Amino acid sequence: MVRMALGFPRRSSRYTHTPSQHPRLFLIACSVILALGFVCPAAAQVAQPNFPVTDDAVTSTAISGNTLYLGGWFTRIGPREGPAVLRNGVAAVDVTTGSILPWNPTTSGYIFAATGGTVYLGGPGLMAVDGVTGLQKWALSANNSGIYAMAMANGLIYVGGSFTTIGGVARSGLAAIDPATGAVTAWNPPGSNGLIWCLVPGPGVLYAGGDFTSIGGQPRNYIAALSQETGLATAWNPGADRRVYSLVPSGSVVYAAGEFGRVGGQYRRGLAAIDASTGAVTSWNPSTNGDVWTMALSGNTLYVGGVFTTVGTSSRNGAAEIHAETGATTAWSPDAYGAESIALGSNAVFLGGQFVDGIAKVSSVVTGIEPTPSVESVLGPAAPNPFGASTSIRFSLEKEEAVSLRVYNVHGREIAVLAQGKHGVGTHVVGWDGTDRDGQAAVSGVYFYELKTTTLSFKRKVVLVR
């Protein structure tokens, strides 16, 4: 299983690097971000001390097996205390031990993906290097600062950017590459009139986000779906009012992140969920007070990073964990303002960025942070759901602690208290007979039940049908 997430350098005046200062650097977009399922350990919100730091920003990350590949602006990487080693903007770290691996390609760039023993790097073009030796397999040059986005589907590498030629072949910001040879294929759709920041595959399509107002031969504002076969824009057209940085498809929904304030004509600050078939914006609306640069999805948990200090009504400094169904934030709250990349390991979330005032109080850091337990492992679905006479709700605790389990209506008014006080380790099952605190029958409709512990808060939906 390959897990990857990509970051976006130079998106804020917070960073002062310019292309002339760093000609080897390249603006990376989003690639294939896989939905993962894993068993999470107990919640923690501090950096793992055995992970290294760098002398400048880490803007992209990808995990393959036990190896975390890094890309960014750095020239040195090392332990928090001790000597650093030289690296040319790319490095590899053992995710278990935090040891810096000898992988050291002579070419530099940002990490697009790591799969099948190959690491794909973006720069003025696209490079494939061996994931163990670092030796270059092939390389393509592209003009106009090159390639900003990459997606893998149908045995091809789809790339997007600002280029008009790639590998010596004329293309209008979109191209398809043979991953074995690096050859540019005959796929040649109309490009875009602005930067393509992200390409992500969906069923038969490539979801695209960026700065454009036209792509694939059609007017599309900052977000679009392109046919994988032809590259032409499909009818899917939610429309945003500003740049889209990251897209994550998940079943019937596509999550979008960026610097937008409206999507589909509705207020959605920084985050939105869009129907994958119709393009209609759903009611999911966590809302941030700043830009969201990167996302990664694990089951029903969406991890986000960027330059925000609140998500919904919760204070979150640059990174947050959000329930993908309800939009509620969990208790996970690392101090990581400016998080540019997120990679999901089997038992940790790896954040990359330029955390001047961040997790480790250093200039830049790659850090593993334990996620909170998933909602499925703590608060189970009501069964049956919908229900008429009664339903059962399961919750599990890893330690003895005080909890409350309450039912609310869609207006946030408390309807019933199902559990309160100290509960022991293990699984607990409580029932709700559809009555309120006064013993009166609640009306038919949608309700939410919320479990709160000393460190966690989870919410799920249940439907009462009389």
Give a quick rundown of the structure.
The chain is mostly beta strands. The protein has one helix and 40 strands.
Explain how this protein is built.
With 466 residues, this protein is an all-beta fold. Helix content is 1%, strand content 45%. It is globular.
Tags for this model:
466 residues, mainly beta, four-stranded antiparallel sheet, disordered N terminus
Going by helix content, strand content and strand pairing, the class is mainly beta
Overall spatial form: globular
- Helical percent range? under 10%
Q: On the 0-100 scale, what is the average pLDDT?
A: 81
Oligomer: single chain
What is the straight-line distance between the termini? Answer: 45 Å
Number of helices: 1
The fraction of residues in strands falls at 35-45%
Order of the strands making up the biggest sheet: 6-5-2-34-33-32
Low-confidence stretches: 1-46, 356-366
| Rounded Rg | 23 Å
The largest β sheet comes out as: 6 strands, antiparallel
Total strands: 40
What's the arrangement of secondary structure elements?
Elements: E1 2-6, E2 53-54, E3 58-64, E4 67-72, E5 76-78, E6 85-86, E7 90-94, E8 110-115, E9 118-122, E10 125-130, E11 136-141, E12 147-153, E13 156-161, E14 165-166, E15 169-170, E16 174-177, E17 196-202, E18 205-210, E19 214-215, E20 218-219, E21 223-227, E22 244-250, E23 253-258, E24 262-263, E25 266-267, E26 271-275, E27 291-298, E28 301-307, E29 310-311, E30 314-315, E31 319-323, E32 339-344, E33 349-353, E34 364-369, H1 375-378, E35 391-397, E36 401-409, E37 414-423, E38 426-432, E39 445-452, E40 457-464
